[in-house]
Design a protein that fits this description.
Radius of gyration: 45 Å
Shape: rod-shaped
Strand content: 15-25%
Number of helices: 3
Order of helices and strands: HEEEEEHHEEEEEEEEE
Helix content: 40-55%
Structural class: alpha+beta
Number of strands: 14
Length: 339
């Protein structure tokens, strides 16, 4: 009986030793792998899949009349996405066109009057020349006692009247010329207004500024869209990349073109490759809402992180993983060799 109990205890001790040995071996292997990885690679999980984003916003103020795309839709550059209500702008265009036409008619009338006044000047110049000849002849005859003083005075008054009429005709030409200039100025102003309204009318139709996918719709039909206020946000899914932040103590191992391996949490076991395409010239904290102010007396040293962009070399793995699709915002884990 005692022998059986001793055998059981001995068996339990052996199993415990074996289990402990396995744990120790596992810890040694894990420690060795960790040490090897630590001395060979730099890593970070402060990374995510990113994409360039384009805001689709109107250039003019207006109420949204129609929206032709929804979140998740793929769109191509130049595709019509939004139309704004153009009722008021159409009325403004009609008023501007009417004002331009009215100014054009006034200009035509002013030109006709100007030409008439020019003709009047020529008539008055002929009349003045004849009155001058009559006055010269009357003076000669008056000096020779052929004409009376009353006849000479009449010829003189006729000349003075012709001169006054010529001066009046010239003044009227200047008035007509001013009327033409005023009408032409009105035409230019009205034409500029027409062009402005036409541009605003064109801007009531909002097109996709680039190809991509609708990531977010910010407004609905009936909302009043403000210039510069986005209606949609488009992500360029064809140009995905990784945005990451490495500690400043690791930056010495990075350079443009350095190969990178990374994985995303959404697809465990799938490894992607990329390369460093951009290293920021400043730390991430420099453009935070509250930049660091290391004033004397309250300084606490914190390891800074530097933004790094990773170009994805093989983001499309549909041949091996048909359902795999990288999406902007996915978390990523990066591993880069130190050599």
């Amino acid at each position: 009986m005692e022998t059986t109990e001793e055998n059981k205890n001995k068996g339990r001790r052996i199993r415990a030793y074996v289990a402990l040995s396995l744990v120790v071996v596992a810890l040694v292997i894990f420690g060795w792998q960790w040490y090897k990885s630590y001395t060979t690679f730099i890593t970070t999980d402060d990374a995510y899949v990113d994409a360039d984003k384009v805001a689709v916003s109107p250039k003019v103020l207006g109420r949204i009349a129609a929206i032709y795309a929804a979140e998740g839709d793929s769109v191509t550059k130049g595709e019509l996405l939004v139309e704004l209500d153009s009722t008021d702008l159409v009325a403004q265009k009609q008023q501007s066109v009417a004002a331009r036409n009215q100014a054009s008619a006034a200009s035509s009338q002013a030109v006709a009057k100007y030409n008439f006044d020019l003709a009047s000047i020529k008539v008055q110049e002929v009349a003045l020349e004849k009155a001058k000849e009559d006055l010269d002849r009357a003076k000669l005859q008056f000096d020779n006692k052929v004409l009376t003083k009353e006849q000479y005075d009449h010829a003189k008054k006729t000349y003075e009247s012709s001169q006054a009429q010529l001066d009046a005709a010239k003044a009227q030409v200047n008035v007509s010329k001013s009327m033409i200039e005023s009408a032409e100025s009105t035409i230019r102003t009205a034409g500029a207004q027409v062009n402005t309204v036409q541009t605003q009318l064109r801007n009531t139709r909002i097109y996709a500024p680039s190809s991509g996918r609708i990531a977010k719709r910010w407004q609905l039909p009936g909302d009043v869209a403000q210039p510069g206020q986005p209606v949609f946000t488009i992500t360029k899914d064809s140009a995905l990349y990784i945005t990451s932040f490495f500690e400043e103590t690791k930056i010495a191992y990075l350079h443009i073109g350095k190969k990178v391996e990374f994985a995303v949490d959404a697809f465990p076991g799938v490894t992607f490759t990329g390369e460093v395409s951009y290293i920021a010239s400043n730390t991430a904290s420099q453009f935070s809402l509250i930049p660091p102010n290391n004033a004397s007396g309250n300084f606490t040293k914190v390891t800074q992180r530097i933004p790094i962009r990773i170009s994805i070399l093989d983001w499309d793995k549909k041949d091996k993983y048909p359902h795999l699709k990288l999406v902007a915002g996915m978390s990523a884990f990066l591993k880069i060799r130190k050599d």
